Predict the structure.
Amino acid sequence: MLKTVLSISGRPGLYRLVNRGKNMLIVESISTKKRTPAYAHDKVISLGDISIYTETDDVPLTDVLEAVKEKNGGQPVDIKAIGDDVAVREYFAEILPDFDRERVYTSDIKKLLTWYNLLLEGGITEFADKEASAPEVESAPESEEK
């Protein structure tokens, strides 16, 4: 699901990939639904390609967003109510206990929580791909009566 959700450097918010053009992408803002082009010189990254540093392996952003959703019961996070930088890092430690405290900055955590809120606001509540994670169930052939 997050493969088509994009972050564009220098632009606020998140965008959904609508179409590809010659030397550009057509993107739609998740919050305003306004369509704009993103050119080859723009730094565009898919949220599906982002991961968070931990002490062992990197954790995909989809897993972290699912953990945030679970902790908050699917409700938005009030980042200002959490408090200062130390409180934000403590809050994130409850979500991802083994995150690398040297390489994951407080600004990264705040951005992740802001993205979570934007995704909820845009109606995106399922972060993991259902096709990739769910095993396929084969149906039994139906018998025909003649």
Remarks:
- The domain at 50-131 is CATH 1.10.10.1650 (Arc Repressor Mutant, subunit A).
- Confidence is low (pLDDT under 50) at residues 132-146.
- The CA atoms of residues 52 and 58 lie 5 Å apart.
- The radius of gyration is 19 Å.
